[in-house]
Amino acid sequence: MTSTKTFPIPADAEARRAIKPVICYPPETLPRPDLALYQAAREGATKVAEVLVPAREAAVFEAEAGQFFRISSVEGPQVGDLNLWNRNDISERFFSGKTRALHGTHVSTGERLWSNLPYLRPMATILADTLEWYGIDAYGGSVHDVIGTRCDPYTGALLQGGHYHHCCHSNLTRALADHLNIPLIEAEPHVHDVLNVFMCTGFTRDTGQYFMKASPVRPGDYLEFFAEIDILGALSACPGGDCSTEHSSDTAACYPLRVEVFAPAEGALAGWQSPARNGYDGSHGR
């Protein structure tokens, strides 16, 4: 939307625009994961669970602290919307906004998914990403974003009218409600902004609008995590398929996604400890 008022351009406009940016949260002091330890433990790990997420639906999985979970494309190009909670206390959940502030708009190997305040600790660390080769394309697009919110029926009703129930928000709500055996109205507030697994997104340079484009994911590609705490996860196979044209659609080609959980051999993580909740004392100056 363009303003109907015209404001004068200051004489020093170009000088103001030319000021160099400052990184808000320099990553140098972040606690670093021991990727070598994790990778060594992963080599001897065995599969202990597997969940197939149907197209246009969601499914729940669990992973214990110290286990690994892998999300894979299995039949065709498909993106997924991922929610994570502390399995023992679902008031602690994935915080996409702070993850974005700490790591950037898209995440890959060695970066972590952080939990909400007041916990603010790593929930999972990305251990392997077969799409890390994609980088940032000429449009500013990249893969695995923490900028999109999830397709939802409320925005659909606002923009297009009607009631579409297989959007990712509704899929995640149903899956969580069924898993916890609670009503939908109780489950819905726990559904939160997602990691858009395999989704290729960015912001247009001219208008700053959030865009999506065809995901580069193909069968066999995967994103793998190390569970830093006990995880309850839910993954929706987005009704937009590879999101090359639209989402919240019954016409887009959609495919299932696979989640596998692996347990390391006994003693493989010797010396490792699950991260404690954030050390801030919570006094807020009082």
Describe this structure in words.
The protein is of the alpha+beta class and 286 residues long. The protein is 16% helix and 28% strand. The chain has helices at 13-17, 35-43, 96-103, 153-160, 168-180, 184-187; strands spanning 46-53, 58-63, 68-73, 80-86, 89-93, 112-114, 122-129, 142-145, 195-203, 210-213, 222-227, 231-237, 257-263. It has one domain. It has 6 helices and 13 strands. The longest helix is centred in the middle third of the chain and has 13 residues, at 168-180.
Into which percentage range does the β-strand content fall? 25-35%
Give the CA-CA distance, first to last residue.
43 Å
Helix content: 10-25%
State the major sheet: 7 strands, antiparallel
Uncertain runs are none
* Rg on CA atoms, Å: 20 Å
Structural class: alpha+beta
Keywords:
single chain; 286 residues; alpha+beta; seven-stranded antiparallel sheet; six-stranded antiparallel sheet
How are the elements arranged and paired?
Elements lengths: L12 H5 L17 H9 L2 E8 L4 E6 L4 E6 L6 E7 L2 E5 L2 H8 L8 E3 L7 E8 L12 E4 L7 H8 L7 H13 L3 H4 L7 E9 L6 E4 L8 E6 L3 E7 L19 E7 L23
Antiparallel strand pairs: 1-13, 2-12, 3-11, 3-13, 4-5, 4-9, 4-12, 6-7, 7-11, 8-9, 9-10
Short account of what is shown:
With 286 residues, this protein is an alpha+beta fold.
